[in-house]
Structures are given as C-alpha cells and as structure tokens.
Amino acid sequence: MQRICRDRIVTDQGGQKTVPTHKSDLKTNPPTSECAKSDKQFTFALAGNANVGKSVIFNQLTGSNQIIGNWPGKTVDRAEGTLSFEGHEIKVIDLPGIYSFSTFSMEEIVSRDYIALEKPDAVINIVDASVLERNLFFTLQLLEMNAPLVLVLNQVDVAKNKGIIINKDKLSTLLGIPVVFATATRGEGIYEAVEEAVKVAISKPKSKPLKYRKNLEEPIEKLQSLIEKENLNLGYPARWVAIKLLEGDMEITQLVAEKSKTISLQSKLLAGELENRCQEKCFSIIASERYALANSLVAASLKQDEIQRSFTDKLDWFATHRIFGYVTALGVIGGLLLWTFFIGNGLSDLISKGLNLIQPINPELSMSAPLLSIILNGFWGGFNAGLTLIIPFVIPFYLLLAFIEDSGLLTRVAFMMDSAMHKIGLHGKALIPIILGYGCSVPAIHSCKIMETRRERLLAAFAITFAPCSARTIVLFGMVGLFVGIHWALLLYVVNLAIIFAMGRIAMKAVPGKSTGLIMEMSSFKRPSLKVVLKQTWTRTKSIIYVVFPIYIAGSALIQVLYIYDILTPIGNALYPLTVLWLGLPAFAGVLLLLGAVRKELIILGAVAILGTTNLLTGFAPVQLVVMALVAMLYIPCVSTMAILGKEFGWKSAALISLANIGTALIIGGIAFQILNFFT
Amino acid sequence: MQKSTQDYLKTIYSLSKNGEIVSNTDISQKLDVAPPSVTEMLKKLADEGYIKYSPYHGSTLTEKGLKEAQKITRKHRLLESFLSKILCIGNDKVHQEACQMEHTLSDEAEESLCRFLKHPDTCPDDGKTIPACDLPFSNCEECIQLHQKGLEQVGKRNKNLTSIRDLKNGTFGKISFIRGEHKVLQRLLDMGLTPGTKIQIIKVAPMNGPVEIAVRGSKLALGQNIACNVFVETE
Known about the structure:
The structure holds 2 protein chains of 2 kinds.
Chain A: E1 2-4, H1 6-13, H2 22-27, E2 41-48, H3 54-62, E3 66-70, E4 77-85, E5 88-94, H4 106-118, E6 122-128, H5 132-144, E7 149-154, H6 156-161, E8 164-166, H7 168-175, E9 179-181, H8 190-203, H9 214-230, H10 238-247, H11 250-259, H12 261-278, H13 282-301, E10 302-304, H14 311-319, H15 324-358, H16 365-368, H17 370-407, H18 409-422, H19 431-436, H20 441-446, H21 454-466, H22 470-483, H23 486-510, E11 519-521, H24 530-564, H25 568-574, H26 576-582, H27 589-596, H28 602-611, H29 622-634, H30 639-649, H31 651-679
Parallel strand pairs in A: 1-4, 2-5, 2-6, 6-7, 7-9
Antiparallel strand pairs in A: 3-4, 4-5, 8-10
Chain B: H1 3-15, H2 24-31, H3 35-47, E1 51-54, E2 58-61, H4 63-86, H5 91-101, H6 107-116, H7 140-148, E3 161-163, E4 172-178, H8 182-190, E5 198-204, E6 211-215, E7 218-222, H9 224-227, E8 230-234
Antiparallel strand pairs in B: 1-2, 3-8, 4-5, 4-8, 5-6, 6-7
C-alpha cells in the first residue's frame, strides 16, 4: 500500500531520497500514527488527454501496488492501484488517455461509462498546462457528466518555459472546481491534488455544468427538462444525455429510442432546427461551442508572454528537416539497434562469465548422468540462457527507447517516416510498435492498440512478426556474426528489412479496407525524466521476464529429455525433404526449427546441445548457417507471440499469420540457398 | 470564358504549388505552345485580372484567377476520375478526354458527378488533390442530404479555399471546410479544428509526408490524405 503524507512530499522537494519503499508500506497496514485513521474507502479516477503525465501521477500515487488488467469484456488496459492518504484508503483507477467522449474508440466508451455509471468519489482531471485550451475541451465534457472534479494543471514548468502564466484561482472560480498546480515528474502538487480530491469526495459538491451560448443552450435545456420529466433511468445525467442526443451519439440515441419515442423524436426535431439555423452539422456546432467556451476560459485566466525561439524549437526544426530529418530518423533507429547490440554483447559476456563461475554447463553429462543433465543442463541452462541472452539485450534496448520516447524524438521519427509507412498500408504512428518489435514481439503487438482500426493493428502486428526481435538477433549474431562474419549478419538485417517491407505491401493488398490517415499530436521536446524512463523500462522488461523465463526453463529441460531419450531423430527425418533437400541444411536442423517455435534462441541452445560444442562450424557449413539464420528469423512466430496474436486478433488470424511466416521463410530460405550455393 | 483562358489558368495552378511564381518556359512546355504566344496570352490574362504577370519572372494567380483555376481543375480531375474509374478508359487517354470535356461541363453536372463518385478527394492518374467545390455546403454529408431532400443549389460561396497540403510553411489560415469520414471529422473537431479556427502551417514533410500545423496552442501532424481534405481561407 502506497502512503502519501505531507512530510514525504516535503522531503521530496528538498531533494532527499527518504521515500519509504513500497514493500515496507505494504507491511505497515493499517496506517501508522503519522497518518490519521479513517475507515471509509474512496475511489478516485484519473482522467485526461494522452501525453499529459497521467501515468506518471498514477505511478507516484500507487507505487508498485498496481494491478494491470483489462476492462471486463474489452481489450482496453485497466490500471488500478491503492493508496493510503492521511488515514483514507483510496482505490485509484487510471482511465485511458482520450481527447473526447464520443463513442469511436473503446477507450472512450470505457471511460465515459466508468465515470457516469460507476460514479467514482472524485475524478482527478490531469491537464497539460501548456496546451490548456485543448485540454479544457475535455474538462468541459467531464463537467457535463456531473463528475466530482479536481483539475490538476500538470507540467506547469513546461508551460512557464513557453511563456504561459495561468491564474489558477481565476480558473477555479470560473469552472467552479478546485484547481491545483503540479509538476508530476518532480512529485510536486501530487499531495495537494489528492488532498483536494479527498475534500471533494467527502463534501460531494454538485459541480454545475457551464452554460453554452443561447442557440445551443436552448435546445439542450428543452431536451433536458423533457428527459427529467420522463425519468428514463439511464444512469447518465439528463443534461449530458441531452447533449449526446443532439450530437447524434449512436449509443445514447439507441438507448433513448428504446425507452421513449417522444424524446427520440423531439431530439431529432431540435437537432434539425439547430442545423438549419446554423447551417452546420450538430456535432460540429457542439464541438465549436465547447471550444468557444474553453477559449473564453483560457482568455480570462491565462497570460501568454512573448515567446522566443527556444532551443527545443531548433531541435524540432532539425528533427523534421527535409534532409536532417531523415538523417535523424535513421540515426535514431540505427543507433538504437547498434547500442543494443554492443551494450548487450558486453553485458552478456559479463553475465555468462559470472554464471560459469557458479556452475558451468557440461554437455558430456547427458551421456553419463541423464537425470543430472536434465536438471543441470536443462533447468539451470535455461535459466542461464534467459539471463545471458535476453536480459542484457532487452534492458539496454528498452532503456534507450524509453529515453527516445519520453523526449518526444520518436514522434518526430514517426512524422518523417509517415509516407514510407503508407506504402505498407500504415501510417507514421505504426513505427512505434514496429520499433518495439526489435525488442520483443509480445509487448510490440500489444502496443498496436495505438492504431485506430483493426486492419491497421493487424497489418502492424503482421510486420512485427517479421521484425528481428532480440531473440532472433541473438540467433543471427550467434550463428552468422560469430562464425561467418559480421558483415553477413548485417546484410541479413538489411534483407530482413526489405522482406518486412515487401510482406507489408502484400498484406496491405490482401487485407480489405482503406487506410486511415495520421492524426498525431506533436508534443514538444522535453528533457526525459529519469524516473519515467526507468519505470517504463522496468514495466516492459518485467512483462518479458514473466513470459520468457518459465518457457525458457521448461523448454530447455524438455530439449534435454527429448535429446537424451532420442525422440528427436524421427521428427528430424520427417522434415528431411524440406530441411535437407529444399533448404540444404543438415538433417538435425528440422529438430532445431521445431524447438525454435517455442523460443527462437532455443535454435542455438539446441544446436549446442546436439553438437556437444559451442563451435557451430562442426555441424554447419557457413552457407548453411546463413540459410538457417534467415529461416529462423522469418519462419514462425514463437509460442508467446502466437498467444498474443490469438488474444488480440482471434485464432484464425493468428494461424494465417503463422502460415504466411512459414511460407515466406521457406521461399526466401530456398532461394537464398540456391543463390549462395551458386556463388560458393 | 474562352477555352484557352481556362487552360492557361489551369496550367499555372498546377505548376504553382504554394502560390509560387511560374515561369513562362514552364507554361510553354506544359501547354506545348511557342514562348512568344505564351507571353502574349499572359499579358492578356493580366489585363483581365486573372494573374499578376511580371516579365522575365513569371506569373502568379490573383484571387479571381485562383477561383477560376480551382473550378476548372476540379472539373478536370472529377472527369478524369469518372472516365478512369467508371468508364474504365486507360489512364493514358483520360487526361486528353478530360481536357476536351472540362470546358463544357456545367456546375450542376459537376456537383452530380462529385456525388456519383462518392466525393473523391484525389484524382486517379497522378494522385493530385481535387479542389473543394465552391457550392454552399459545409461538408459532403450535407451535400448528400440536401440532394436527397431535393435541394440542390443554394447560392454560391465567394471564397477562395486552399487545402492545407498546398500551403507554404508558416502560412496562417482559417479552417473553413473539412471533408472526410464522420469518424475522422469528429476526431479533427475534438482536436480543435472547428470551422473558423485559426491555424498555422508549421511544416509540410517531404515526399507526400504529413503536414504539421499549430492549432489552439498544440501541434498536430496530419497525414497527407487527411490534410488534403482540410480547407482553409488564407489571409
């Protein structure tokens, strides 16, 4: 249980790291004397646009005490945590980052139903102070829903740098809700925000929605009083329903139509009248009215000083320049991969030397002592492999990626690469999951959620299944880089890139539907916060450890069992036509490919186990190593990837993607074998 | 208006992305007309107020010229779409055909053609933007609805609209018309692109890349297939 007390915040501001660790917090429950006691549990929801620092605040509030799951029946992430504050037990829900409450995305529906129907005790609306007007557009919608609101103006430091000064008392009076300044990355303002939210939760003040101008306000009020009179029992506030009806919101319109013909008809009449009067679509009128109100609020409470061309503007100019922009994009992606490889290699060496000191793996054991071999070479070897192959590569990759993401650089790369991504039916934003795929396919496919349509998510996930994740990179460098030559390994990397592109194009043609376009916020460059970066790195690494280690240890033990009892040979023989005749590989390669379907690195582990030596040249010719690595990169998504594909897109799509992978690998591998054979 | 006038205006429009000056040589090459005749015609157009012409530099369209040029370009590209997509005439021939037909196509036929083709935004052979119609609709849905109600013509709009995709970096504009799917429109409105909003073009990425704009204190990147459907009034 995370506790927040005033002294903690004070010490934080003093720069001393005296924050109690989360573990000790968990033990000191119920709260100790420094926080007063109370037995009421509150529920707070965090709401706001994307990129406003919502998850930073959520992490500060709930520490490690979080449950990440899905909303019931939906594929939307649901993050929940608990916090102990001045004796209050508080459950905190982190709602998805959204811009509006229409019904176009699952995130928006989940959020609005949670706020309107579950009625949290307080909604903490986190707002980017440097983009106040756009953020208030969302705040106004929360007010329409009668949410018990606290407004947190986050990133006031960024706003100050942009010459923006906000009068928070004025804003608070105008909106009729408490307003708090915060710089969440430094922990400032969090205490005050929770303090205000507790006050709101206790006193339950009725926030009154702000009025729009007369031409819109009249039909809203007419419809609202009708709804109140008929008592529809929808659970949503009447005024909000009235606005949604005028807006033509599909879900609400249908809900109301089932309950009352009169209101349904009246709303259509009023909407028609409004459209005729304004010569404009209703949803556009309402959006315009909300923005007009947000604009007047901003005009009354915000002072904008003269802006000077700042350093970040120059960075921005450079990163999106017609030439330097591409240089930057290439530099970022290439740099990320090179950094991962070199740092990863170094770390991997270091860790494996350390582990060898404890207990080296001995391939000869499998003959003399089968059981010991299963335990030592199997379980310990699997653990060993996880620790030396995955961790050293994945951590530096995610660390640098988080820096690039948090600084805003990745957005610029996506901007520059948009037109290239269009060639494979995607847009710039898809670059983010695909780059993630160079680390591990599982979180990468999960992050395809940022794409708007199922088609785009599917296309991006398909591209990811071909991207060389860290496991495949290990196979590539372990087989080709080490024994054939580093330039061959790099060449395969480039070939792989071409294959991703070609397969992406084929998939684009094969999957019906039209590509939507890019609508992306270009949040300003900022100095990455170490806390945020570390947290992000850890979250991603942790999810891989949970997926990878059990499969590794079990898989590695299984290989030993299969090997010792000689079950592998018949399988290898069955695959003979494909592996030996078509791909020109040694006969035991069929077994390796089967193992690799569990995790790609098992190909190397298996080869070492079968050959009884780490020198792969004893079993493979150089050409065979190149073909083997190429096939290994492409041939099938590993078990965990298939699982997430099935979960996100259904088993049929997962099976089709796997088949496409196998087909590509066989064709490309066969062609590569013929070509290489011809030249050597 | 004469056929040749329309051809010249159309050519200058297509050559001057971002309202840049177009040289006589370019025009003479594109229209396959001898340079002296081009000079003569340009002077005539300048007299009639369609272009600003400065000898040895070239010409730019005036507001009046731009309006005519957009109208004829729109007709041309709609016709190309029709000939290629519906009549399946080869892309090598559609340009020639459209060049002949565009001069006689009435506004009414233009509007019907647009509805029939389901409001295309780019033309098939070269992917160029089809300029917005100058009819008094706030969006394409309204055009469809009004058509269903039997109301087709309701006056004319006297505005020069330019797609933000065709604007220079740094230009200011006021959103006047956006076309697209409901979902995209809703999203753009939510992000603050409501009609009448002042925006600034920050950057147009090379190679048909996205357009970055500043709107209501935030910066947005819009893919070119969305940007070409966002029309603004420039000052």
